[in-house]
């Protein structure tokens, strides 16, 4: 009897401590996933049941933004709470770039570490590694994630299409044979391995623009690499490898609150999904990579369920920038769209100043805390730092993460308005502002169509103003009709820029 009472009391205590525990945070950050690429955002040619389920159980946002229309600056802003355009050298990083994030500054993972979280990053990094001049690939690769607030990292150093094509776990390349050192060059060829340009007959998938340098796993990449043969990744296994590392991290840290930044490779190029997804979408490798991404999300949810953590975990799913169809490989993506609209109703795409560059899928699930539904709140990923700080009872210092605002209630679906305004950055650094119904794109020069990717840039030497409420596709420039709005938003941009 006594024993029963005791174990009952113990069970109560466990329930109580669990209820008190800070939520785990899982951020699944897809690559180049467009506003229209998921079935819960209106896609019909491709089905994403796992992501749709997370969305149905949580809040699906319609007006949430990455800060930038490309990867490196969006990720920089996400992790530092500062707009990347404030710091030069934060454009798309080559694979041998030095670590871009200063090690003496508050970061999203560092802030969560302070709150008692165990923090991990798995997947695409693309924020540089090592000191000025780049890392020592054959030694300790640092500084990197571990020096800016992560307890664990398992990375693709840059992107899937950039060398070196090896995984880096904490400070070391995984499976490196010291007698076969890795060498990397973004200038001159290194070693004598075949390149896409010289040996196209060796390719599994032909490049369409760029991507004609060293061939790894039958795919030519950006940059030259030699050595590290035993350590090279197999693209087709990447989603399984990364998802497995995420599961292990959550398992190891199940007793702690944890934060995991699962930075998927999908759906970036080269799109080389596992054979079980090949041909399954009917849309070619781009659609198959969406199915693979959806599978990854399903696996994460299964792991949370198995560990009994599904309720006390805040799951966020989003993307680093908008969609692109032909991003440098002949992977049939254009031919097999069959009417699929990667950007949904939005104009432009990855790289551009139009809304499809940064308005991305954004889903938040936290049972019991977040009421299921949709929200039109205006949100920016730069605010996750201050908002998750608020969630975990912290406040960044006055000169820390200065662009990050606490919009926690927006992210939790309680405040339907969100931010006052959002800033968007195109690849050529053109800035835009969304405020209320208005979208203002500052004047800039450059081609209206980016020829290789066939993306509408949104560049125009004249100011542009669109009413997103009546014209979400940014087709009618109303700048001439509303000079006072143009002036107001020009001034706002000036103030935010600080010049
Ligand atoms: C571009 C690449 C593109 C992609 C992009 C970065 C060429 C011709 N194009 O320069 O394929 O890698 O950089 O994408 O090399 S991002 O999502 O990481 O920003
Ligand atoms: Ca990207």
UniProtKB/TrEMBL annotation:
SUPFAM superfamilies, alphabetized: Alkaline phosphatase-like (SSF53649)
Domain Sulfatase N-terminal intervals: 23-393
UniProt KW keywords: Hydrolase, Signal
PROSITE patterns per the UniProt record, alphabetical: SULFATASE_1, SULFATASE_2
Keyword Signal (UniProt): yes
InterPro entries: Alkaline_phosphatase_core_sf, GAG_Ulvan_Degrading_Sulfatases, Sulfatase_CS, Sulfatase_N
Cleavable signal peptide: 1-19
Alphabetical list of Pfam families matching this protein: Sulfatase
Highest taxon of source: Bacteria
GO MF terms held by the record: hydrolase activity
Record's keyword annotation contains Transcription regulation: no
Family: Belongs to the sulfatase family.
Protein name, per record: Arylsulfatase A-like enzyme
Organism field: Larkinella arboricola
């Amino acid at each position: 009897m006594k024993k029963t009472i005791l174990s009952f009391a113990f069970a109560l205590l466990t329930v109580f401590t669990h209820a008190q525990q800070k939520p785990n945070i899982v951020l699944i950050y897809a690559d180049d996933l467009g506003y229209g690429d998921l079935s819960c955002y209106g896609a019909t040619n491709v089905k994403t049941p796992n992501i749709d389920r997370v969305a149905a159980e949580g809040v699906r946002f319609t007006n949430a933004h990455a800060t930038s229309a490309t990867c490196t600056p969006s990720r920089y802003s996400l992790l530092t709470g500062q707009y990347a355009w404030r710091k030069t050298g934060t454009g798309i990083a080559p694979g041998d770039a030095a670590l871009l994030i200063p090690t003496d500054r508050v970061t999203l993972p560092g802030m969560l570490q302070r709150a008692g979280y165990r923090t991990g990053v798995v997947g695409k990094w693309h924020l540089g590694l090592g000191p000025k001049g780049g890392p020592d690939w054959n030694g300790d690769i640092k500084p990197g994630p571990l020096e800016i607030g992560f307890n664990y990292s398992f990375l693709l150093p840059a992107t899937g299409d950039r060398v070196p094509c090896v995984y880096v776990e904490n400070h070391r390349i995984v499976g490196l044979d010291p007698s076969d050192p890795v060498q990397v060059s973004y200038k001159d060829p290194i070693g004598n391995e075949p390149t896409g340009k010289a040996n196209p007959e060796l390719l599994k998938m032909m490049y369409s623009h760029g991507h004609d340098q060293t061939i790894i796993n039958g795919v030519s990449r950006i940059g030259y690499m030699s050595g590290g043969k035993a350590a090279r990744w197999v693209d087709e296994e990447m989603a399984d490898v990364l998802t497995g590392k995420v599961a292990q991290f959550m398992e190891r840290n199940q007793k702690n609150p944890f934060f995991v930044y699962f930075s998927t490779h999908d759906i970036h190029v080269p799109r080389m999904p596992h054979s079980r997804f090949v041909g399954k979408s009917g849309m070619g490798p781009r659609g198959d990579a969406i199915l693979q991404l959806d599978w990854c999300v399903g696996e994460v949810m299964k792991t949370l369920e198995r560990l009994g953590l599904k309720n006390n975990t805040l799951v966020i799913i989003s993307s680093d920038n908008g969609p692109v169809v032909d991003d440098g490989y002949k992977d049939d993506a254009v031919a097999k769209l069959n009417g699929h609209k990667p950007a949904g109703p939005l104009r432009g795409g990855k790289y551009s100043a139009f809304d499809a560059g940064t308005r991305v899928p954004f889903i938040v699930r936290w049972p019991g805390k977040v009421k299921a539904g949709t929200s039109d709140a205006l949100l920016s990923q730069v605010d996750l730092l201050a908002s998750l700080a608020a969630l975990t009872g912290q406040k960044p210092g006055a000169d820390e993460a200065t662009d990050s605002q606490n919009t926690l209630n927006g992210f939790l679906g309680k405040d339907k308005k969100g931010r006052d305004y959002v800033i968007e950055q195109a690849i050529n650094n053109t800035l835009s502002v969304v405020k209320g119904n208005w979208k203002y794109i500052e004047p800039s020069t450059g081609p209206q169509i980016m020829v290789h990717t066939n993306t509408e840039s949104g560049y125009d030497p004249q100011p542009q103003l669109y009413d997103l409420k009546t014209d979400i596709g940014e087709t009618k420039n109303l700048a001439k009709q509303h000079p006072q709005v143009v002036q107001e938003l020009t001034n706002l941009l000036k103030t935010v820029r600080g010049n």
